[in-house]
Amino acid sequence: MIPAPYRVRSRRPDRADTVTLVLEPVDGACPPFLPGQFTMLYAPGVGEIPVSISGRARAGGYVQTIRAVGAVSRALCHTPRGSLVGVRGPFGTHFDLARAAGLDVVVAAGGLGLAPLRPVIRELAAHRARYGRISLIVGARTPDALIYPRELARWGRRFDVRVTVDRPDRAWQGPTGLITGLVGRIGVEPGRTCAFVCGPEIMMRATAEELLRRGIPADRIVLSLERNMKCGIGRCGHCQLGPLFTCLDGPVLGYDKVAGLLEVEQL
Amino acid sequence: MEPIVLDTLDPLIEALRERGYAVVGPVVRDGVIRFAELGSAADLPTGWGDEQAPGAYRLRARGELVFGFAASPDAVKRFTHPPRTSLFRMRDGVPERAPVEAPKVAILGVRACDLAALAVQDRVLLGGRYPDEAYRKRRAALFLIAVTCAVPGGTCFCASMGAGPRAVSGFEVALTELSGPHRFLAESGGERGAALLAALPSQPAAAADLEAARAVAEAAAGRMGRRVDLDGVRERLVQQRESPIWNDIATRCLTCANCTMVCPTCFCVTVEDGTDLADGTAERTERWDSCFTLDFTELGGAPVRASGAARYRQWLSHKFSTWVDQFGAYGCVGCGRCITWCPAGIDITEELERLR
Amino acid sequence: MKKLAVFKLASCDGCQLTLLDCEDELLSVAANVEIAYFLEASSARGEGPYDLSLVEGSITTPEDLERIRRIRRLSRHLVTIGACATAGGVQALRNLADVGEFASIVYARPGYIQTLDRSTPVSAHVSVDFELRGCPIDRRQLLEVIAALLAGRRPVVPTHSVCIECKARGNPCVLIAHGTPCLGPVTQAGCGALCPAFNRGCFGCFGPMQSPNAAALNARLRAAGMDDEELARVYRTFNVTSFGGSCDA
Amino acid sequence: MTHKTIRVGALTRVEGEGALLVRARDGRLTDLQLRIYEPPRFFEALLRGRAFTEPPDITARVCGICPVAYQMSACQALESACGVTVGGALRDLRLLLYYGEWIESHALHIYLLHAPDFLGYPSGVAMAADHRRLVERGLALKKAGNELVAAVGGRAIHPVNVKVGGFHRLPSRAELAPVAERLLQALGDALATVEWVSGFGFPDVEHDYRFLALRHPTEYAILSGDVAVSDGTTFPVADWPRHVVEEQVPHSTALHARLDGRTGYLTGPLARYALNAPLLSPLALRAAADAGLGRVCRNPFRSIVVRAVEIVHACEEALAVIDRYVPPARPAVPVAARPGVGHGASEAPRGTLYHRYRIDDGGKIAAADIVPPTAQNQARIEADLRALVAPRLDRPAAELAGLCERAIRNHDPCISCSAHFLDLRIDHG
Ligand SMILES: Cc1cc2nc3c(=O)[nH]c(=O)nc-3n(C[C@H](O)[C@H](O)[C@H](O)COP(=O)(O)OP(=O)(O)OC[C@H]3O[C@@H](n4cnc5c(N)ncnc54)[C@H](O)[C@@H]3O)c2cc1C
Ligand code: SF4
Ligand code: SF4
Ligand code: SF4
């Protein structure tokens, strides 16, 4: 599979090291995606990495938020408006919102984990009436590291939104500490709640365990996993987690399917 | 088409060449028997055999057989899923697919385990949602001539994997080497094979020839150097994820990846992106990778499978357990290559037994 | 245009010569990068700072210690090329000896010699952005590192075993098929598994691979007939500072 | 009283690191030092205790430009200690490997290091801006040499295929065929090179050199031979220590080799040509004649022409070797360690390279001695420089410095080689 050329239509720095790009296909339409799916983004000559889709741009195309942590993500973050990048995908499983219909929804995001959850939240907002109570809990290392701050404020007017940071600055007035601390504050009704969780693996496991403890069944706690991926299509073998190919069987998976796997060290 | 008997292989080689195939077969080279292009049947390793044991391989003079040896260090994988291929080149932001090189190659002397391994790779590379078209092309360009194993190696266990020693499908022509007098029973496995055989000077096979061929395979099956007890192996490996045996193996395992390189079913790859300093074009190549390398699972600057134990566990569990979950078959065909070509002499059949 | 500089410390010249040995690429490299400072190849001495400095050779004298600090200050990326710069080189064998004895044997007036008692890699003194292994380095890897660093990407220089390259190249395994001692399983790839292709065992000129298990290999090498003394010698050749301890394992 | 000091801080376009210091007072030259600040690497010391099979791989690391020379001198010294001779096709392969190094090293020197002096460029790369085709030709020649070394030795720098007694693996005729094709091309390029460089403008300088080179009865000596001196002396390599004595002189860091009691002789292309020219290959001989080299060339600036002629010779001879090559039965003659002393010498591109080893009862190296060509030439290079500078002290310092650098480059000094030298003193004062 070779990447399709996409043009960077806009480039908006979110945070010091995080940029949101709008990518438009150079020719043809851009294939539809479901919340939680990802693309393989190619910085020409530099490399290719998996990046979640954070939204559909109004004029078509993908909205993707990238944090510069290494060579490829840095190159993508620095791609100027108008330049070409390569896109393959979308790939992988998605957050199944149909299953959430009629239920209370907890959306839990750690750090950049908010990026793949953004389409989930927008969907919830667009069809607010289909769901019960909606709570959004977000954790970030520092207030500075929070992405989508303006949207968070907007969502806060419609849902129960709570944000915690590990290391507050002087201006911070909200809660501090781990995101698991927020789970107790949102008041969960186990029989009618489902959860969508994305963030660093330890954060996801701690959150899922906390939700489990509160009685939410494991199959209604859905995570999005991260593994090394070179192909995105189950060919390179890198992303295996026990029997799963994270790129094909995941990245979005029920906690019932992965809890046992994540428990085993270095699986 | 009915089985026939061939006295020599030269007409077969010639006929393949006339059909535009480069004919590849086993030859003695640099102290091993391995695939190389054949000039004529005289290049075949007549009289040579091999002795294989964990971490050991030696050439040995052996009777008059042409195919009196076991699996060679290279598998058909080298032709269907080459060690390195170019995927695309990109000039001014527009990627151009690299042309797929799929030369017409006839491989003479393919073993049952190799055919079984091809079937496994077919499932992996063609059976899913994203079939690999380059693999399909290279695969289609092959003309496979199987040979029944008469002398299995000391590390072979294809019989217990249900993959040999006699090839039952996946070939165009299958040969069984018979002695007294020396001749080959040839059976076709497809139309191309039948057409080829029809064009060769031959006699029809007698009932005794068929019986002799069966006896060759049976004797070989009885002489397998090793076996694996598949009963419950898949579940067992799941239960044994935290076994201390993995750490014990890790003290011996070099994490050198030889086992995965020689394995005919291992398919893992990585990609390398680069730019040409001179003309600025970008290129992506794909090359064999292995679950034994650290970069394989690198995430956020650190590998998921940092320990040798975790990497060995991935390899063995994949072959005999999770492969079944993923592809509905084992990832091992019992060729024994990973045992012979492991510098540390680690024997998967023995380790599986210990993990009981 | 980005500026490239090449510096030499205690070494044989082979690694910097590798750049001149890129016969097919040299002129196009030079068209895309300003080779600003490269004494072996040019009498032009372009001023720093340099975008990329390639440093060959180990630190063995007080002057070179000073020089490497200056080079570091002048360089955006500092890349060491070869076993000398990366692991002290063959001259680091002195590190295992009594330098006083060494000098008294070799020099009539040892007090006159301004040399440090140890040959050390560049990274022992200044921060290094990338270390390219090999005695000598591989031409293709050198081009890759230059291209990658100038393009701002991570060089594709695998750190796994030589065995992977050996199998990809289609060599027979000399250890298994010939009984020839081979360091391939504990040595980093990069040479293209050259020695096994020439029917000889790898002797480790690219230094240790990412997760070397020398104890396990040594058991095998002893079985192949190497005694402890030979083991010690083979690890203590071109990469003494990085490989030297492997024989004690 | 007027003082004048000329410093060339770091010599460029030479292999290794050196500097030059010239002092004059009242129009008289008082001091001239070719300084080597290349750090010593103690090769002779670190070879002690190594297995007798190791010097070819280890001493190759003395010099990345001429590793084959080190491997060949080392092998022959060790073989002679063990009482083994390597002949026939194995010796032919050694010649082939060595010709590859000559082609590669000479092409490097001519096109990238030396010719820019005559055409007025700082480097070969800069020269390519105006003379792209020429530089490309040089690179193609160099590549042909490197490919030959790689085909026989495995890689161009520090080949891996050489061992005491022969090789690890024999190349097949089929593997050498493409190399031969390239050499044929290279031969044409080499002839063109002779024609090109012989047209350069050479300063009218001649020195009364005493030449030293190996001499072989039937070959333009490269791999082996007796040691011949232009005053008529000839001695076997094993007598080297009795004829060549290295001495330290008080004023200089440079070591001066004394040959039969007299200091300052020259080894290298000019010496080889003077002593062995009639044994050059036919095309090389014709090229030398057409270039007007004469029977003996004493102008160091014209050494570039001799090098070009030697490339022609190497290409032509290499082709002949490939043509007659039939892989021998074994890749190497078995060599068992034998206690004793062995001497070996061969002609590195820069001149005679001598090795001596003493092997102990356990098959280990007990003592090693290496005499590289540049160390031998050092005193002579300084003499060249004195002769050049003394009558021109009135010229501007920059001009003199440039001239000196050129004069040093005439001898293609390899400082990396010379700096490992047994008795070298590093004096940074
Ligand atoms: C399904 C999925 C969805 C994802 N979605 C997003 C997304 O929406 N947005 C996003 O930003 N990311 C996302 N990621 C993560 C993203 O793919 C990785 O951040 C990316 O692969 C990093 O690649 P890189 O080349 O930029 O960095 P790499 O070079 O791979 O480096 C990554 C990290 O490793 C460190 N590192 C690299 N090399 C070394 C070394 N030699 N030694 C020590 N440390 C080192 C770097 O400093 C950095 O911290 C997703 C991943 C997956 C699997
Ligand atoms: S796992 Fe080993 S025995 Fe099984 S197919 Fe692979 S190499 Fe052969
Ligand atoms: S099992 Fe053997 S071949 Fe495989 S990585 Fe370990 S030591 Fe290497
Ligand atoms: S020959 Fe050496 S490098 Fe090659 S596979 Fe065997 S052990 Fe590894």
Q: What can you tell me about this protein's structure?
A:
- The complex is a heterotetramer of chains A (267), B (356), C (249) and D (429).
- Chain A has 267 residues and is of the alpha/beta class.
- Chain A contains 6 helices and 15 strands.
- Chain A folds into 2 domains: 4-91, Translation factors (Elongation Factor Tu (Ef-tu), domain 3); 97-223, Nucleotide-binding domain of ferredoxin-NADP reductase (FNR) module (Rossmann fold, 3-Layer(aba) Sandwich).
- With 356 residues, chain B is of the alpha+beta class.
- Chain B has an 8-stranded mixed sheet with strand order 3-2-8-9-10-11-1-12.
- Chain C contains 12 helices and 5 strands.
- Chain C has helices at 14-20, 26-32, 62-74, 82-87, 99-106, 139-151, 162-169, 174-177, 194-197, 214-223, 228-235, 240-243, and strands at residues 2-8, 33-38, 50-56, 75-81, 130-132.
- Chain D is an alpha+beta fold and 429 residues long.
- In chain D, a hairpin with a 2-residue loop joins strand 10 and strand 11 (262-263).
- In chain D, helix 5 (124-130) crosses helix 6 (132-153), helix 6 packs antiparallel against helix 7 and helix 10 runs antiparallel to helix 11 (303-324).
- The two termini of chain D are 24 Å apart.
- The chains are: A alpha/beta (267), B alpha+beta (356), C alpha/beta (249), D alpha+beta (429).
- Chains in contact: A-B, A-C, B-C, C-D.
- Chains C and D meet through helix 1, helix 2, helix 5 and helix 9 of C and helix 1, helix 4, helix 5 and helix 6 of D.
- Residues 38, 47, 49-52, 65-67, 69-73, 112, 115-116, 226-227, 229, 251 of chain A line the site of flavin-adenine dinucleotide.
- Flavin-adenine dinucleotide binds next to strand 4, strand 6, helix 1 and helix 2 of chain A.
